[in-house]
């Protein structure tokens, strides 16, 4: 093969541009963490003065271990790495990063595993071997790793990120409980699904089920009592309440199995109470998130984005942060968040697949926000329709749209500029984008007001759809 026949490819750009000075006398610490202890491999970067030991995984033992560290020589640094998830260790070490004498790396577990297996074909595994593999990754490949950076000036944004992520987790837990409640109601108390709205997590619905967890107890209540309950919870339509009371009086139990009805009653009470508690906590999260976001310096940027609203604007602010040096460019943001696909090529075969390893909350944030922009942005709707017509499934089309939005968001965030739909549409026209023809068709379509379903229809509708309050 001649030299001229060799094709060279550019190296992948790093996510950050942080310089990594290396000194042969740097201390390298590879840590394998468990619930009870840390297995540590400590050595110099040049491989000398290596030692292995264990530290109890308690705050007191960790502080004693920290106090016993030898003093650093001039120009040297401690480089520490451990596997994710590792919020405990990140919280423990974060204040030492501020001194500039400690560098932290939170590794994907597959990285040290691949290093260990490369030189241990038998797959012999111990905690100490894992710690040694982590130390070897640091010694030989630190320049390829993404450093964990603590930015003390961005504490409010860090808190905003944690709160929005915790809120999303609480909403997911509530959704799971709501689905379980729907299942038990279908089994023993299906009339409740006709009497209540689809969003069973709302306070009126949980209060209704806690007061009347079975059809027998509901039918024993006086009509005036039921009517007063609806009035107290803001349901004031007399005809709707009358229809509900008529349905209750004519209802027949789905089963007479006392064992099933007794266990279902207890489960309905438990689930309704759990959902009510979670809903109150979610409201508290939203109140605190709104207060933090109100003082965010980049609030105008996120408020200008279509579909962001009170849910996604704080989530985007928490994910992006305030340090403009975090990402070397839009491709770095797209890769880190898992929106950018990856290519797998071998010989003549080449496929493009979805990126799996990424921060899940970040990907959810961008994908869900992109979905909210479809009915609110002309070009987003046109692009989504073009992807569907090209044969892509819904989720693939929304991820492709999120990929486009990230480029726009990165530039607005980098320049601290508000998004302007008119300017972007003008730019598409100047570039001769194929989306323009589709956008003009959408603009020519008459705007039809959304018709609200009649509330009376809820009386005869059996609610079978799963509630999806994630974007509420």
Low-pLDDT regions: 1-19, 451-472
Cα distance, first to last residue?
61 Å
What is the H/E string? EEEHEHEHHHHHHHHHHHHEEHHHHH
Shape: globular
% residues in beta strands? 5-15%
Structural class given helices, strands, pairing? alpha/beta
Protein described:
With 472 residues, the chain is α/β, with parallel strands linked by helices. It has three domains: 27-150, Nucleotidyltransferase, domain 5, CATH 3.30.420; 160-290; 299-343 and 351-433, no CATH class. 53% of the residues lie in helices and 9% in strands. The chain has helices at residues 59-67, 87-97, 110-119, 127-141, 155-188, 191-195, 203-211, 215-220, 223-232, 238-250, 258-294, 299-303, 309-320, 330-336, 360-373, 378-389, 394-415, 421-431, 435-444, and strands at residues 27-33, 37-44, 51-56, 78-83, 102-107, 342-346, 349-353. A five-stranded mixed β-sheet has the order 3-2-1-4-5. A two-stranded antiparallel ribbon has the order 6-7. A hairpin with a 2-residue loop joins strand 6 and strand 7 (349-353). The longest helix has 37 residues, at 258-294.
